[in-house]
Amino acid sequence: MKRFVVLSGAGVSAESGIRTFRDSDGLWENYNVRDVADIEGWYRNRKLMLDFYNERRRQLEKALPNKAHETIAALERYFEVTVVTQNVDNLHERAGSTNVIHLHGELTKIRPEDKADKGIRDIGYKDVNLGDTDERGVQFRPHIVWFGEAVPMIEPAAKAVSQADILLIIGTSLNVYPAAGLFRYARYGTPIFLIDPQKIDLDYPNFRQIRKPATKGMEELMEILVEQYI
Ligand code: OAD
Questions:
Q1: pLDDT in tens, 194-228
Q2: 27 CA distance to ligand 1 centroid (A)?
Q3: What is the per-residue pLDDT for 32?
Q4: What backbone torsions phi and psi does residue 40 show, to the nearest 5 degrees?
Q5: Residues belonging to the active site
Q6: Does domain 1-18+65-104+151-230 have CATH number 3.40.50.720?
Q7: What percent of the chain has pLDDT over 70?
Q8: Could you report the per-residue pLDDT of 96-130, keeping only the tens digit for each?
């Protein structure tokens, strides 16, 4: 089976009602990134950060995967698929994708604030508050990668991209590194498709943009895949 790697960002979940970050109605219009998505913000004001992610979790509970998530999950019938997502939602998994790498963490998980990759636990859609601690009395924090922190999953993600036969980039403005640089690990000449309503030019030989929202874009991509690869 050919290996198919998807690099997804906030745009894939936009049609599920989850706001992107940098569009005109994006989350960063209403919030200061330094307050809610930066490790220094955590030490300055934990309550503000916890409230922000509690709100995101409640919103996620009500959201449903859309046709784009579902079509990406259906690719597993034809390809060995790895989804590398910058999203902290669980909509790829809920649509049925079985191999998802979360580069920026997961909303439904928490860990003690003194650990980078240990003591992780599932909390589903529940709130986390100041004073919620592990058995040692250490405050829990969202299991999210904030600005200023390492991205532990970048290595398995880069490895997956380097082995891809086909790459799809969907719904990301490619502003945030190291995620934005991942496609450069692709073997030279690997076909790269990009689905996004905004024009994005990649300086890359075998690149094609489908300039549509995720759901419509995935329909068009499936037609191309059926014609050329399946
Ligand atoms: P952005 O908000 O930067 O970019 C969203 C992209 O989705 C843009 O290119 C939009 O044009 C596109 N888009 C909007 N609606 C769409 C739709 N219906 N279908 C397809 N595409 C659509 O989001 P990301 O690139 O994912 O990190 O942001 C990267 C990281 O920045 C996030 O993971 C987050 C943030 O800081 C953390 O919080 C650690």
A1: 999 999 999 888 999 999 999 999 999 999 999 99
A2: 10
A3: 87
A4: -70, -30
A5: 104
A6: no
A7: 100
A8: 999 999 999 999 999 999 998 899 999 999 999 99
Residue 214 CB–ligand 1 contact under 6 Å? yes
> Ligand 1 pocket, 108 CB below 6 A?
no
Task: Assess whether the C-beta atom of 175 lies below 6 angstroms from ligand 1.
Answer: yes
Name the architecture of domain 19-62+109-144: 2-Layer Sandwich (3.30)
Q: Which H or E run contains 208?
A: strand 207-210
Q: What three-state secondary structure class fits 110?
A: strand
Q: Parse the chain into domains and list their residue ranges.
A: 1-18+65-104+151-230, 19-62+109-144
What distance in Å separates the CA atoms of residue 130 and residue 139, rounded to the nearest whole number? 7
DSSP assignment of 130-192, as one string?
TT-B-TT-PBEEEEEPPBTS--TTHHHHHHHHHT-SEEEEES--S-STTGGGGGGGSPTT--E
Please give the pLDDT value at position 17.
Answer: 96
Q: What is the token pair recorded at 115?
A: 């650990």
Which residue has tokens 């409640």?
A: 58
State the average pLDDT over residues 77-86: 98
pLDDT reported for residue 99: 98
CA 22 to ligand 1 center in whole angstroms = 6
Handedness of CA 114, 116, 120, 126 (dihedral sign): positive
Nearest CA to ligand 1 atom 30: 176
**Residue 80: enclosing H or E segment and its boundaries?**
strand 80-85
